[in-house]
UniProtKB/TrEMBL annotation:
This is PPM-type phosphatase domain-containing protein. The lineage of its organism: Bacteria, Candidatus Curtissiibacteriota. It comes from the Bacteria. The chain crosses the membrane at residues 278-298. Keywords: Membrane, Transmembrane, Transmembrane helix.
């Protein structure tokens, strides 16, 4: 049986004020709990009153929202997403082209709009262009889907995907990045490469490649073990085997045949003895068969465990050597490979508590520490207000600072400040749709940036607030409350989590479709109220205490502050720890936001709004 995994590489030029290309991908959970991957390329051109990057953000949030929890026909759901995206830009002075692809099980579903984005499918040495507006088709191992703008295709040499069997997508992306950066129309340039990899399920696994062939499927059958690798296993089996095992069958045959000879002489007692001996003989045969089958199964299981252990250890060792080899040339890529090596070594140790595996884990850990990327940040004061700030948000091109009883709208360009009065006793705030949602001790207020304030929710015992797609979420020490807006302005309350958790009173949260919650030295991930398996890998230093966390559906990473160590950690949504920023300001930070391009961060410290480069 064969199934597929995807390797996705994205590239896009720097956006301008009136045009931008967004390339997105995200795992989406359908109504039946299964997962698919959405990959979209969106080109937006707009006039002065629109912000192209804001439009991109709105469109991608719409994509993930519409697909999340979809049921019934997948193609129909993808087409509905396309229709909703067209409705979003209808009547606005925008020129939008996009292609949405949804990879689910062994099928690719496609919806297309506009002429500015195209989709090509490469199957070396051929390729073809898909021109229908909506449809689907089966995927196959080795295919590469290229979803790209016309501006990208004008500078892309497709022969690198048709003339070469060993395709290095990362090398292609690295080469294109330099070329795109000097193009006049780079804001309209973007592409996603989706490489379909096959995975055999019965004992066959994909192994890491070497530099220059990475991403190409290599098969290793773990059931075939080299002779030298099995010597130790055979020696152990010899020790465990009984040293003097006597076969009881000859003795029983002697008794049976002896009974038969007595029977021939007319000995009536021999009849009864023979019956008894036959029953005993049958039981002994059955017992021997059971023991033999059991012993065979035990030995088979042991051989399979040793084979699996050796496979994980070999992969870990290979990746470790590869990571060490490129550590000086590309520290970031080396770190990703070392984290994968650490994962494989951990799997090996989980099977056998072996000294070779322990030693390799120690070596990988030491190399991970060497490749940690640590940066010191120099902050610039953007604004200084009259009150200590407890919250911060981005609204268009402006920043919104939130204090105990005021809201400050700061123009980042001219640094002008406008004050808006809000309710007192503010514990947290969140900006959504140009309105500020304020959490107090027992209420939630909605404040228009024009100054109008309205109480919308009665809620006590919560300490953080977030808003996603119009729904208001409140965090307590053990639960997340979700308030759904109803007609007439009311909100319907419900518990978001299926089961209570211990977050403590210092936990904070952020939402990008999933809900991410910090609690002491952990980050929890929840999707539709169910806790997901999420572990941070590659983090060699001890965490003090996680607090403020920021992300959105536009970002690839989580930005989490460790207040004890006065550090900002960047962690991928797949759990891979990427880098850390150090500054004394992080210990005093009440809130943080990151711009959609993940190039700039803003934070509040006391009564100041600070800006730092990422």
């Amino acid at each position: 049986m064969e199934e597929f995994s995807l390797k996705i590489e994205k590239i896009a030029g720097v956006a301008s004020e009136h045009s931008a290309c967004g390339v997105f991908n995200k795992k989406v959970t359908l109504a039946d709990g299964t997962l698919g991957t959405v990959v979209s390329c969106i080109l937006v051109k707009c006039e002065e009153e629109e912000d192209a990057q804001v439009v991109l953000r709105d469109i991608f949030e719409l994509i993930t929202t519409k697909l999340e929890g979809a049921e019934g026909s997948i193609l129909a759901a993808v087409c509905k997403v396309s229709e909703a995206m067209q409705e979003l830009v209808l009547g606005r002075k925008l020129e939008v082209s996009f292609i949405d692809t949804f990879f689910y099980e062994n099928v690719c579903y496609i919806a297309k709009f506009g002429d500015g984005v195209r989709i090509l499918v490469f199957e070396t040495p051929r390729f073809s262009e898909i021109k229908f507006e909506a449809g689907s088709g089966p995927i196959a191992a080795g295919q590469i889907y290229l979803i790209a703008t016309d501006a990208f295709l004008s500078i892309f040499d497709s022969s690198v995907l048709t003339d070469n069997q060993n395709i290095d997508l990362e090398g292609i992306i690295d080469g294109l990045a330099t070329k795109i950066s000097v193009e006049d129309n780079q804001s309209e340039t973007g592409a996603a490469f989706v490489y379909v990899r096959g995975e055999e399920l019965d004992g066959v696994k994909e192994t890491g490649g070497t530099k220059g062939t990475e991403g190409i499927l290599q098969i290793e059958d773990t059931r075939e073990i080299r002779e030298e690798e099995m010597v130790e296993a055979r020696e152990e089996q010899k020790v465990e085997s009984p040293s003097k095992f006597k076969n009881p069958l000859p003795g029983f045959f002697k008794i049976i045949f002896g009974g038969l000879s007595k029977l021939q002489r007319g000995d009536i007692r021999a009849v009864l003895a023979l019956r008894r001996n036959i029953v005993v003989f049958a039981l002994v045969i059955l017992l021997i068969l059971v023991i033999s089958v059991g012993w065979t199964l035990v030995q088979k299981s042991r051989r399979e465990k040793i084979a699996e252990f050796e496979a994980h250890l070999a992969t870990a060792s290979s990746k470790y050597q590869e990571g060490v080899a490129i550590a000086e040339l590309n520290k970031v890529r080396a770190r990703e490979i070392l984290i994968a090596a650490d994962h494989e070594a951990g799997l090996a140790l989980g099977i056998l508590n072996d000294e070779k595996a322990k030693k390799l884990v120690s070596e990988i850990s030491a190399k991970l520490k060497e490749t940690e990327t640590t940066s010191n940040v120099n902050f610039e004061v953007i604004s200084e207000v009259a009150s200590p700030l407890i919250g911060l948000a981005i609204s268009g091109k402006n920043l919104i600072g939130i204090s105990d009883d005021k809201i400050f709208e700061v123009e980042t360009g001219e640094k002008k400040i406008r004050e808006i009065k809000s309710s007192g006793n503010t514990k947290g705030g969140f900006v959504y749709d140009e309105r500020v949602f304020i959490l107090t001790d027992d209420k939630v207020y909605r404040v228009d940036l024009a100054g109008e304030s309205k109480k919308i929710i009665e809620a006590a015992g919560y300490h953080d607030i977030s808003v996603f797609l119009g729904n208001v979420y409140l965090l307590s020490g053990e639960q997340i409350a979700k308030f759904v807006p109803l007609e007439g302005g009311d909100f319907w309350p419900t518990d978001y989590l299926n089961a209570k958790e211990d977050f403590g009173i210092k936990g904070r949260f952020a939402i990008d479709g999933s809900v991410w919650v910090t609690a002491r030295d952990k980050i929890f991930k929840f999707t539709r109220g169910v806790r997901q398996n999420f572990e941070i890998s590659g983090l060699t230093s001890k965490v003090g205490e996680f607090g403020v966390i920021y992300t959105s559906s536009q970002l690839d990473n989580l930005y989490v502050i460790d207040s004890v160590n006065s550090a900002l950690l960047v962690i991928g949504k797949d759990g891979i720890y990427k880098r850390v920023y150090q500054s004394g300001e992080f210990a005093r930070t009440a809130d943080i936001v990151v711009n959609p391009g993940e190039k700039t961060m803003y934070l509040v410290s006391a009564n100041k709004i600070l800006m730092g480069k990422l």
